[in-house]
């Protein structure tokens, strides 16, 4: 047993509801607190001095200076396994070029596919681990990672295998997702329907056999896959035993409805979601995931997070870190900016990047500093937890703990 502290403040996020709006008065803040760890889990939180007396056998791990502690963050949507770079896409978009012009001059998702296919396993693994370390340094210890830049059996498996290899080399929890349905690759001979069928018959059986992912994602959008064929695909993947998540309503509304209908764990993006679909989502257990990094990368509007919360939805916030639409990768900056634009309370933002996003990944017992929950937490050298979002990502973490161990 180990007692870590004292912390000026510990924000436990205990007792906050899974869905709907939250006020900051609901936050449980322990002052001069300690975190008692047993076997990688939180055994207890409370007054540091009182815990010290109560658990005399506990080894004491003293903190230096004034620090606050929060549950570690969960990034439930990333595409951080990729080759190449799309800085030119960003520059061209900002110079007024259209999607088509960018694609024609060698940009877009297809360019990342070519770079990822050409990358060696070693290169792919190295850059993936660098990005994972960047996220850990931000206090993120659970990271979802999608395939989707391979788009054929060989390269989708290559990506997923590198994610599995990365898991052997990091203390963070990686959650792989198969996004072979990101786009029909240009070199596939056949229509969308045939490509989706190829995923079902050729890619997913191997993914299952080699235990590379338990989740499947699809990009439903005019430029990618259409609603009906996507629904059919999702129902089939469900029959194969996969959990489902959807890139929904990014530019065109309608697909979040499909996500709810097929019982997806989450519907992500939702920048274009219309009022009636907000209600539909809010009445379901499908997590609505805002991806402010994509809005910032593309210069597009934000997900209507305020409306979703007011309607009672389960709102998560994730980075969507990818080489094209969301190259920043700083979830804390993005969530703080979303809060300012959408008027989200601190409790709503913190819930959105911890236990609510963990729920989107089907993970229980993480994202709160609660008895029996995974002891992943992050500390900042400050005396007030509000400073974390206030500085919009520029307040650096002091320490990151995974299973109660400082890493
Ligand atoms: O989540 N929307 C589709 N997919 C990614 C973008 C991927 C890319 O541009 O490479 C997204 O924004
Ligand atoms: Fe995405």
TrEMBL record:
Keywords of the record: Histidine metabolism, Hydrolase, Iron, Metal-binding, Zinc
InterPro entries: Amidohydro-rel (IPR006680), HutI (IPR005920), Metal-dep_hydrolase_composite (IPR011059), Metal_Hydrolase (IPR032466)
Record GO cellular component, one term: cytoplasm
One Gene Ontology term from the biological process aspect of the record: L-histidine catabolic process to glutamate and formamide
Metal-binding listed as a keyword: yes
Broad enzyme group: hydrolase
EC number(s) given by UniProt: 3.5.2.7
Domain called Amidohydrolase-related: residue spans: 68-405
Name of a matching Pfam family: Amidohydro_1
Pathway(s) served: Amino-acid degradation
Gene Ontology terms, MF aspect: imidazolonepropionase activity; metal ion binding
Protein name per its UniProtKB record: Imidazolonepropionase
Taxonomic lineage: Bacteria, Pseudomonadati, Bacteroidota, Flavobacteriia, Flavobacteriales
